[in-house]
UniProtKB/TrEMBL annotation:
GO biological process, one term: threonine biosynthetic process
Coiled coil region boundaries: none
Name of the protein this chain belongs to: Homoserine kinase
Provenance organism: Chlorobium ferrooxidans DSM 13031
Domain GHMP kinase N-terminal: 99-183
Family annotation (SUPFAM superfamilies): GHMP Kinase, C-terminal domain (SSF55060), Ribosomal protein S5 domain 2-like (SSF54211)
UniProt KW keywords: Amino-acid biosynthesis, ATP-binding, Cytoplasm, Kinase, Nucleotide-binding, Threonine biosynthesis, Transferase
Function: Catalyzes the ATP-dependent phosphorylation of L-homoserine to L-homoserine phosphate.
Taxonomic classification: Bacteria, Pseudomonadati, Chlorobiota, Chlorobiia, Chlorobiales
Gene: thrB
Major localization class: cytoplasm
Any one annotated GO CC term: cytoplasm
């Protein structure tokens, strides 16, 4: 039976309200960015999507008259159990704002001389496979951009969010950062130069995302991966990436399901997630189109072609975690794909 943990069905709702307050050269604004799922099975480091909730919130206060050593400071962090750094160069939320300020000074001739203080309200679990580090960065970036009159496009902001990932786990992968800012599915055709393609989602595609109560660091989950793969595996993998993109563009739900196969990362990471194969089987048995590891894990996601099925799938996955050897409690969200990306609340 499912008891202590919780589940939620989420919808895309928050409306734009802009600057929270503006008095005597002091302006306050709140940014929000939701959880993202990297890889989407076959697209290691090149494909990711955003769900609508949960997400991180960042409140920025700009004081034009305050001049201190660092232009950005963190005044408080809640929801992290004291785990996250307050040093502005070490927290992804503040680090990316520093990068953004540097960029607008050198590329847009905007020399910001005041101070931005940042409150981080962490709602996403750390090291979860839900793009937690990217969500903090994306929320802070849209808020900073709005505070300074939107000098950058969202596409430009993605560059700074990716740099935040390097701070979090040592690797500048874009499959969380890009959808956290842009919304939808995002395909990374190339990293140098960065070439991102947003892919709209089929109308009835729902994600069940289940987070077992355990942590798996992205840096560790990357260290177990091979540096080279045999050609046979590569052929399977790029066949599935192409098919998945085609399925998304044509709303071919069966094809989406067939394409959710990962022969590169999943076999190496599955042993790091207690009960992975049972949870995946439970999702398929409950009617999911397909199921795989969310990002680097330990969360697991599944796609369904209706909200009702997605709910049944998510509950079956929770149950399977609970009955696994590790008897893991979990949280679960059922969500459509987020179309909007990071936004001002
Ligand atoms: N604002 C932040 N939110 C989450 N993690 C952060 C943040 N700033 C720095 N980090 C670092 O990144 C690590 C989490 O990153 P990672 O393992 O990639 O998890 P996730 O899958 O949640 O992004 C944390 O251990 C923390 O040290
Ligand atoms: N492509 C990355 C995605 C990591 O996502 P996270 O949410 O676990 O940080 C990888 O697979 O390492």
């Amino acid at each position: 039976m499912i008891e202590a943990s919780f589940y939620l069905i989420v919808y895309p709702t928050p409306k734009l309200t802009g600057i929270l307050s503006a008095e005597n050269g002091i302006k306050t604004i709140r940014g929000f960015a939701s959880a993202t799922v990297g890889n989407v099975a076959c697209g290691f480091d090149v494909l990711g999507f955003a769900i609508t909730e949960p997400g991180d919130e960042v409140i920025l206060t700009l004081d034009e008259e305050k001049h201190t050593g660092s232009p950005v400071s963190i005044t408080s962090i809640t929801g992290d159990g004291g785990a996250l750094p307050l040093d502005p160069k070490k927290n992804t939320s503040s680090f990316v704002v520093l990068k953004f300020l540097e960029y607008i000074r050198t590329h847009k001739q905007i020399d910001f001389t005041g101070h931005i203080s940042l409150e981080l309200k962490k709602h996403l679990p750390l090291s979860s496979g839900m793009g937690s580090s990217a969500a903090s960065a994306a929320a802070a970036l849209v808020a900073a951009n709005e505070l300074l009159g939107n000098p950058c496009t969202k596409m430009e902001l993605v560059h700074f969010a990716i740099e935040g990932e390097r701070v979090a786990c040592g690797s500048a992968h874009a499959d969380n950062a890009a959808p956290a800012i842009l919304g939808n599915f995002v395909l990374i055709r190339s990293y140098t130069p960065l070439d991102l393609i947003t892919i709209p989602s089929p109308e009835h595609l729902y994600c069940s995302l289940v987070h077992p109560h355990t942590e798996l660091r992205t840096s560790y989950a990357r260290s177990v991966l091979p540096t080279e793969i045999p050609l046979k595996q590569a052929i399977q993998q790029w066949g599935n990436v192409g098919a998945l993109v085609s399925g998304l563009l044509t709303s071919d739900y069966e094809l989406i399901g067939r394409a959710l196969v990962d022969v590169v990362a999943e076999p190496k990471r599955a042993p790091l997630i207690p009960g992975f194969f049972d949870v995946k089987q439970a999702a398929i048995d409950a009617g999911a189109l397909g199921c795989s590891i969310a990002g680097s894990g330990p969360s697991i996601f599944a796609f369904s072609s209706s909200e009702k099925t997605a709910l049944a799938v998510g509950l079956a996955m929770k149950e399977a975690f609970l009955h696994s050897k590790a008897r893991l409690e979990s949280d679960m969200w059922v969500s459509p794909i987020c179309k909007q990306g990071a936004r001002i609340l």
